[in-house]
Design goal:
- The chain is mostly helical and 327 residues long.
- The protein has 17 helices and no strands.
- α3 packs antiparallel against α4, α8 runs parallel beside α10 and α9 packs antiparallel against α10.
- The two termini are 30 Å apart.
- It is found in: Membrane.
- It is a multi-pass membrane protein.
- GO terms for molecular function: transmembrane transporter activity.
- Its main location: membrane.
């Protein structure tokens, strides 16, 4: 609140504020009206496909077709609106902007899926309470925070942010790969250490795309560039969580059917994490938990793939000195 009322924007000369009507004309209202429905259609299609309805169901087909049409329409709108667009083409087409958005999307997706399904591992497979599961997940948060701090200081010292993106592309896949090896009797200390390593690896590069926008774009374009990177990360988190839910549900039902053929895998997959042990008999519990663990691990291959794909962003990002930008 203090900043809003008392901190002035150096790019806007005093007394030169445009009238409200002129400011409204600058808004990309058509783009705003299109982007909401197309994101919703995609999320619903990914969430329902293969779980509530088959992929060949007309509802899923319609959702995906509508998404494709609206996405195409959104792209055409942005191209025609030019600098007035929500995603200005002159900014979006820059190599570093695309690299930053790609990198942010992969990092955000990696974190979102890992955090979600390690919680399922703690509660569903290991039988921990939500409170304990939250405490055990702190390793990821602590590592992430430490990585962001090290990255911030490191960039100020080195002057270049790209090396930290490259480091993320090395450390994150290693940690994500180690997570796919966990089993029923895995040491909790080992899992927490792997999560901390993953958090640290991702944290080193998570804030870099935003710093890259400040270093590469002109002062007038920086806010738009940062908003685009943030949007890419947020959208990726939502999309990949929906996609991973479909994968997990399908793998869980398949794995449970393999280990305990007679059990109602659908009812089990829809049960709460704390209810699993009450739905299966003691004689089936070990097999069911084994199936649950396999489904969780197979879902964790998604963040492994996303962490590997960060190399596309780190390899294509321009090397620009933040020290020269300040000077």
């Amino acid at each position: 609140m203090f900043s809003y009322f008392f901190v002035t924007d150096p790019l806007t000369p005093p007394g030169r504020d445009a009238p409200l009507a002129e400011e409204v004309k600058k808004l990309d209202i058509p783009g705003t009206l299109v982007i909401g429905p197309y994101v919703i259609c995609l999320l619903l299609g990914l969430q329902w496909g293969g779980i509530r309805y088959g992929w060949s169901d007309v509802r899923i087909i319609v959702l995906l077709v509508v998404f494709a049409i609206l996405a195409l329409g959104f792209g055409i709108l942005q191209y025609r609106l030019g600098e007035r667009a929500m995603v200005p083409p002159n900014i979006a087409k820059k190599r570093s902007t695309m690299a930053a958005m790609w990198f942010a999307a992969c990092c955000s997706g990696t974190l979102a899926i890992t955090e979600y399904y390690t919680s399922i591992y703690w509660q569903g497979v290991r039988g921990d309470t939500p409170t304990v599961a939250g405490l055990l997940s702190l390793g990821l948060i602590v590592g992430l925070s430490l990585g962001c701090i090290v990255s911030g200081f490191g960039i100020n010292i080195v002057g270049y942010y790209t090396p930290f993106m490259i480091t993320t592309s090395i450390l994150a896949p290693i940690a994500s790969g180690l997570l796919t090896t966990i089993d029923l009797d895995e040491s909790k200390t080992k899992v927490v250490a792997i999560l901390a390593m993953l958090g640290f690896g991702v944290g080193l590069g998570l804030g870099v795309p935003f710093q890259a926008m400040a270093a590469i774009l002109s002062p007038q374009e920086v806010s738009l560039g940062i908003a685009m990177v943030g949007f890419a990360g947020g959208l990726a988190s939502a999309l990949f969580i929906s996609a991973s839910a479909t994968l997990f549900q399908n793998r869980l039902e398949d794995e449970i059917s393999k280990v305990v053929p007679g059990i109602d895998s659908t009812a089990l997959s829809h049960a709460g994490l704390s209810d699993i042990r009450g739905l299966v008999g003691q004689q089936n519990l070990k097999d069911v938990l084994t199936g649950y663990n396999r489904a969780t691990v197979e879902t964790l291959y998604m963040p492994l793939a996303l962490s590997l794909l960060t190399v596309v962003g780190s390899a294509t990002m321009e090397w620009v000195s933040v020290k020269k930008k300040r000077d």
